[in-house]
Design goal:
574 residues, 6-stranded mixed beta sheet, elongated, alpha/beta, 8-stranded mixed beta sheet
């Protein structure tokens, strides 16, 4: 007899058979075998009225060798107290399984929403819902709860699943249609979800793929191809897409999560719909999206139409569609993290089923336990500190009438360096206080006037043009007139530094105060001579430099000209 059948046979809620294992901290199914009833009643039980007694007479004697089964307990009906005992007040309590659901929230649904919520359901069969792909060393061998991590979220255009015949490209092998690189900080105070346009022109490197018979096949790389062909084309798997991201951005994804059209439909239906907003009424014949101006709730087919439409918003291109998708994901995150979802066991179960059935992940995280760990880490990040952005791009100059884009080398490196350096794009209070304390400790003492600061500015790894931009800012905005552009360093450095001699400390303090340099950036040393032969301090702009006019001790990275939003913001698509 299975667990459910046994529970019903005893008239006991099957959920009550899930118990907490103190050794693992997880809920497990505990099937306790029937214990034989004692043939001889205990003295205490002997004094109790015998069931079946009528008018002072006892029930007929039982047949030899047969045991009297215990009285069945009906759900919701408390046992009668034994004679000689005071009756105890009935205690209303939830089953352990239901408590587990309420405590831990919706599992695995983070994959499409960049980490809105997390949890673990005891239903083991969820693990069987998840598809896995062995991508070799393209992914990390395991997940660490103590480090920052990057997850590449891929939405394919493959026409799989019921009702999806009309979406995507007919006969598509499943290209990387929607792509988000999710970076979660080591201290879990912030996260960045960076969208990668499918029409971005990149070089796709060689990649090894695992075949069904266990052998490996190397797919040759190609140059100047759309990013979406890094998956599916020529037999490329998600590992090829991960390698392409690293080659294009310098950021290595640790793991991947992939989903198809069904994910949006099933997840939105599981939570009872997602609120969206449009500035003007929409009637798009191609996507069949029809919405009035203002706020609406969408789910299922309508939700999928909302995130796929190109012709209803902006300039009808992929970049504007990405902005709408980011707004949609932020709304879905808020819905999933709401009390209406997290305290509703029915919704949580539907969410778990929908999420796991929609997923394919790399082998290292292809089990409920690891996905639970990832989800719980993501849940620690406040929505206001989850930044949505798109890789800085520009029109492809190789096309007379551009339909594709390329990475903008004047803006993108600062974004890539911030993510690799685990720097937030939002203000994080704890980090801001920490940096402010360090600056205060180093800047104790007198400060010279800005007009007395003599400084040579060198670009040691910042974005091209940063030295000149900083020179212009210091001279025109801050009055540091004795400043000059001293060119570039051949060997790049990660951090911005300010070197000065002991007798130049007052100048260094003033410049550090202007630029918000952290105490760690101030390097007592020796002075150098400027182009006029006069002693000067040296400012080297490192890879972490946030841009002219941006305080370096701000915990928010600078991304000049990059459109950003956060998961707590409600916006209307336009």
């Amino acid at each position: 007899m299975d667990a459910q059948g046994r529970g019903r046979a005893e008239d006991i809620d099957p959920a009550d058979q899930w118990v907490l294992n103190p050794n693992t901290g997880e809920y497990e199914l505990r099937l306790t075998p029937f214990a034989p009833q004692s043939a001889v009643p205990s003295p205490r039980r002997a004094a109790a009225p015998v069931p079946g007694a009528v008018g002072g007479r006892t029930a007929p004697p039982r047949a030899p060798g047969r045991e009297v089964p215990p009285p069945r307990r009906r759900r919701g009906v408390p046992e009668e107290p034994l004679p000689g005992r005071r009756g105890r007040r009935p205690v209303k309590k939830q089953s352990k399984a239901k408590k587990a659901l309420l405590w831990t929230g919706g599992t695995m649904a983070f994959v499409l929403v960049a980490g809105a919520t997390g949890g673990y359901f005891y239903l083991k069969h969820l693990e069987g819902n998840i598809g896995t792909t062995d991508v070799g060393d393209a992914a990390a061998s395991s997940f660490s709860k103590d480090e920052a991590f990057n997850i590449l979220v891929i939405g394919t255009d493959k026409r799989t699943g019921e009702g999806n015949e009309g979406y995507g490209d007919k006969g598509s092998v499943g290209h990387a249609d929607t792509n988000i690189l999710l970076h979660v900080s080591k201290d879990r105070t912030n996260a960045t979800a960076m969208s990668i346009p499918r029409d971005l022109i990149v070089d796709i490197p060689d990649c090894e793929t695992k075949q069904e018979d266990g052998t490996t096949k190397t797919v040759a790389g190609t140059e100047d191809k759309r990013f979406n062909t890094s998956l599916g084309q020529d037999g490329r798997d998600a590992g090829c897409t991960m390698r392409t991201v690293e080659a294009a951005t310098g950021i290595k994804p640790d793991h991947f999560v992939m989903a198809d059209f069904n994910a949006v439909k099933t997840l939105t239906s599981a939570v009872g719909g997602v609120e969206v907003c449009v500035e003007e009424a929409v009637n798009d014949k191609q996507s069949k999206l029809v919405l009035p101006a203002g706020k609406s709730t969408v789910e299922g087919e309508q939700a999928l139409a909302f995130v796929r439409t190109r012709h209803a918003f902006g300039n009808q291109g992929d970049l504007d569609r990405i902005k709408v998708q980011q707004q949609f994901l932020g709304s879905l995150m808020r819905k999933m993290a709401s009390g209406d979802t997290l305290t509703n066991p029915s919704k949580l179960l539907k969410l778990a089923e929908a999420a796991t059935n929609a997923l394919t992940v790399d082998s290292a995280i292809g089990n409920v336990g690891t996905l639970k760990d990832i989800a719980l880490e993501l849940k620690k990040v406040p929505p206001k500190n989850i930044t949505f952005m798109t890789i800085p791009v520009k029109d492809n100059p190789a096309e007379p009438t551009p339909v594709t884009v390329v990475i903008d080398d004047s803006r993108a490196p600062a974004v890539f360096d911030a993510i690799n350096g685990d720097v937030s794009f939002t203000e994080v209070a704890a980090q801001k206080k920490k940096e402010a304390a360090a600056v205060a400790a180093r800047l104790k003492g007198t400060k010279s006037e800005a007009s007395e600061v003599r400084v040579r500015i060198i670009n040691g790894g910042a974005a091209p043009g940063s030295a000149q931009q900083t020179l212009t800012y210091l001279q025109t905005e801050e009055g540091v007139l004795k400043s000059e552009n001293a060119g570039n360093l051949e060997v790049k450095q990660a951090k911005t530094t300010l070197e000065y001699a002991p007798d130049q400390a007052d100048q260094a303090r003033r410049l550090a105060d202007i630029m918000g340099l952290p105490g760690s950036a101030m390097k007592p040393g020796k002075s150098v001579l400027n182009s006029q032969g006069l002693p000067a301090i040296t400012l080297i702009l490192g890879k972490d430099y946030k841009g002219a006019g941006v305080k370096q001790n701000s915990s928010a990275a600078s991304a000049a000209g990059v459109d950003k939003s956060t998961a707590d913001q409600e916006k209307c698509a336009s």
